[in-house]
Amino acid sequence: MHTRRIGDAEVSAIGLGAMPMSIEGRPDEARSLATIHAALDAGVTLIDTADAYHRDAHEVGHNETLIAKALASHDRGKDVLVATKGGHLRPGDGSWTLDGSPRYLKDACEASLRRLGVEAIGLYQFHRPDPRVPYAESVGAVRDLLDEGKIRMAGISNANPDQIRQANEILGDRLVSVQNQFSPAFRSSEPELRLCDELGVAFLPWSPLGGISRAGELGSAYAPFARVAEAHGVSPQRVCLAWMLAKSPVVVPIPGSSRPETILDSIAATELALTAEEIAELDAV
Predict the structure, then answer these.
(1) What single-letter DSSP state applies at residue 274?
(2) Using an 8 Å Cβ cutoff, are 121 and 82 in contact?
(3) How far apart are CA 21 and CA 222, in angstroms?
(4) Catalytic residue among 53, 104, 124, 222
(5) 138 membership: H or E segment, kind and range
(6) What is the pLDDT of residues 83-96, one digit of tens each?
(7) 53 belongs to the catalytic site
């Protein structure tokens, strides 16, 4: 498995996005555990989750609990960096809400610690800016969690360049990751990716294949990805992840998966070498 760095941690170049295992349309627990274990067997050492990855109002943290169970039942579980998030909420009616208040973030971190069964969270990320709370206050709460030893590393998600710079200043250069949406269908985070490259901060694209419902349509929606895939005899999804990896050494995609075969195909992107001409063709999409 090829590796990359998030802060002081060396992680697999492809992580596992675990959200599909806990929200609407999720599989049964046995298949989810099999998916996580297949990823670990293949060398994945980064799993992305959040307290808001659940379906029903009474099961906050469903995904974190599932991951903790999977890691505890696998001999490589202790080698995994679990990246979780706080500040986004799901009331249980399918909607998403926000709470970036320092009090909420600190309480959410404590709850995540209990569900994950750890003394310190490997990577804790502020999930999404809350327009009702000054950004500096939200990031300041994450700084406090770092200082208190509740989390080992800090990141932010769904941030613009100004917020990335502000977080880096507030955290005293201890910002290690930015998790933003980025895919062939969603390219507006290119400035954030470039800034992370300049700062040496890991950039974690979420929904890198276009989202749960559209990942299978990548080749039909974007012909260049289908052409390059055919030339290499691989899936368009694998080409997409290899293209992202080629953009910068700070990029660590976290494709969502709920089946062993899909995460194994994603992991294989680390072995796919694209030519400069192919990368240029895909960049032009």
Answers:
(1) P
(2) yes
(3) 27
(4) 53
(5) helix 135-147
(6) 999 999 998 888 99
(7) yes
